[in-house]
Amino acid sequence: MQQKRKGFALLVSATMLVGLLAGCGSSDNNKEGGASPSVEVSKEGFPIVNEKISLTMMAPDVGLQNWNNMAVLQQMEEKTNIKMVYNNAPKDSFETKKNLVFASGEYPDVFYAAGLTPAEQMNYGEQGILVPLEDLIEKHAPNFKKVLDENPGVRKSITAPDGHIYSLPVVEFNQPWYRNPMWYNGDFLKKLGYDKLPATTEELYTFLKRVKDEDANGNGKADEIPLSSVNLRDIRTWLLGAYGIYEEEIYVDDKDVVHYTPIENGYKEYLTFLNRLWKEKLLDQETFSQTAEQKKAKAQNNQVALFSDWHAYMTLGGEQSMDDPMFAPVKSDMVDAPVIAKNRGVTTGAFSISSSNAYPEASMRWVDYLYGYEGALLFNKGPEGTLWKYTDKASLTKEYLPVPGGGDREDYRATLTPNYGIPAPTISIPETSKGLLTEFDSWVENESKTKLLDKGARIPYPTLFLTAEEQAEVTTLTSDLTTYVRQMEAKFITGAEPMANWDSYIKTVNKMGGQRMAEIYQAAYDRWKES
Q1: DSSP output for 342-388
Q2: Phi-psi region of 302 (alpha: psi -120 to 50; beta: other; left: phi over 0)
Q3: What pLDDT is recorded for position 309?
């Protein structure tokens, strides 16, 4: 039976590979009108090339749009003289298909929003599959070069140990939260008479208990779900902060000491708290089995009191509302104040050029446009005159236009631009949103400031590269460690494994390399800080 399964898996993989690679050739096979690799690339302005060329692109597709019909990409083709041929894969299966492509030897010309990890960048860069970008940046990317000159930390974060840059990042200094915030159902707070949010784990427990016991949704049924999650990934970081832990795997404390979270005492207390919630059915009993859609369905049935999402209304349904407050991080008796993780501001692996690409200079000029004001505005908000217009172009002030045909602005924006729900290469700058911030946007910004930034939010661990040897060891250790740690997390919380077995768990984790993980990341952090 095992042999049959293995054979079937190989057959499926081969079938997927053939389907994916169809049309995944390099630009050498996609030139239009006989264009040659010696095509002239302009130093500035548009078009980028003097004769039309074609490049293949691989990106994750969220399934809401047809990339060939996107107004932003059509406009880019007209401006640049570069036609992109999209060999995309669904977002949910993108990682699998990306790995198949790298194994195939047939690469797209550019990877867009591919989420290339530092390990992938080093591995495929050293193999020559991804080309070094630093010279291309210097000569053909004035916008991105300006970003690097003004923010030395960005260059530090995207440079591999061999001195090369293999990918361009997402740069988002104005995004405060590390992971989607948690939100309260405001109607439940009002029903229970709360005019102040819980500030400690005990106060949070009391609130969740009251939700369950006091018919917070007022329907006469005991159907409330005080806290809902999907495998804890969406809420884990926020609750770990109550016990002095910044991040679920690796973080550095205020004394520059690196920790591996799953072996910390604070992690044990976090598990103990969630086990308490689980036993009293204050934590959704389907946390380890449900999908995000199932969680949302419960919330839209007015059952959920506390949850995570980009904005509350995206889970609760309906219009944007300022009645559902952002979760204020709580503290336990272990700490004087909760610790809060802040967005790193730099996400590597957003854009890379493969060795198959006959036009790397043109490709760099194409993506560099996205790191300037005009390109960032186009890819973030869509073309001028569709969803927005200038009210004063000199000051870059804009206003929104009615959504064509009505409906939700974000849903419509998703049909215009690829920068929706994926880590796309760009820079977020205040000028792109000047005049477009709504009352709701300002409220969210204030919630983030008062509940996160003003309370000392900071980056848990910097964006950096490990050496090839360190990365190889971490990759080997992580494979088994992550599986074991997550399995044990679920067992400890649900009671399948008693907390009395904590010491045995610690011995196993350290035997598998838990403490070694902290040592590796400590060495990398020390190098990063000294560089």
Answers
A1: B--SEEEEEEEEBTT-S-HHHHHHHHHGGGSHHHHHHHHH-STTTSE
A2: left
A3: 95
Angle at alpha carbon of residue 288, lines to 463 and 181, rounded to 5°: 45
**Which residues does residue 111 pair with via DSSP β-bridges, in sequence order?**
58, 352
CA distance 405 to 328: 38
Amino acid at 352: S
For strand 168-171 and strand 258-260, is the pairing parallel, antiparallel, or unpaired? unpaired
Give the tens place of pLDDT for each residue, 256-283. 999 999 999 999 999 999 999 999 999 9
Confidence of residue 63 (pLDDT cuts 50, 70, 90): confident
Contact 309, 180 (CB under 8 A): yes
Query: For 426-451, what is each residue's pLDDT tens digit?
Result: 999 999 999 999 899 999 999 999 99
3-state secondary structure 419-484: CCCCCCCEECCHHHHCCCCCHHHHHHHHHHHHHCHHHCCECCCCCCCCCHHHHHHHHHHHHHHHHH
* Statement: residue 1 has pLDDT above 80: no
Judge whether 167 and 352 are in contact, CB under 8 Å.
yes
Neighbour tally for 32: CB within 10 Å: 12
